[in-house]
Write the structure tokens for this entry.
Amino acid sequence: MLKGKNAVVTGSTSGIGLGVARALAKDGANVLINGFGDKAEIEAARTAIEKEFGVKAIYSGADMTKPAEIAAMIATAEKSFGSVDVLVNNAGIQHVAPIEEFPVEKWDAVIAINLSAAFHAMRAAVPGMKARKWGRIINTASAHGLVASGEKAAYVAAKHGLVGLTKVVALETANDGITCNAICPGWVLTALVERQIEARAKASGKSVEAESIALLSEKQPMHKFSTPESIAALAVFLCSDAAATITGSAYSIDGGWTAQ
């Protein structure tokens, strides 16, 4: 379905982003992956995409707090592939603290990476999509883009903002062959979450399974994690012809979290 198309996925050296990049590549798209991490592990992930799916995969270490580097990343993809047809804004960070104790520099960083980076990437990619009359933009928001939790002021503000930004871009590009949608995951079983559960189990003396259910139960009626693969499958669908009139939407994939 995506053969001949080219994708940029930010925050894609691990977790959800890597899952999305691999799914797009499996569907035929060349991909630019982006993010921080161990250089050898990143290179291994990049080469695995090329070998497994027979597409071109390149890496950009662009810092998502720096607008010039984001613009350069899009330009690099356009030069290497010939176009950017799919843009997935997935990069994100988190910090937890009460509002009166929330460090200003953490607020600035969360807003920059979780919200402003998506603006800068879309601003750079949309002109090419408009010129070609085809584009798919997917923003990884969160259940926290629709509802709030305490001590997450910056994250909730950024994700709510990302959902709003998604709607604006959808309206502006509605007749240009471009769609722009948000995916709003709940708990996702990534390596980071697995370590969090293991730490809880060690501290409490309970089983990993028990702590998994306890963690999920704090927010989700369904005691089941979403996976990077399930989120990636939704992203691939949103790139399909079947989703050509789906735009400006925020898709919950959250085990019932926001149904409450």
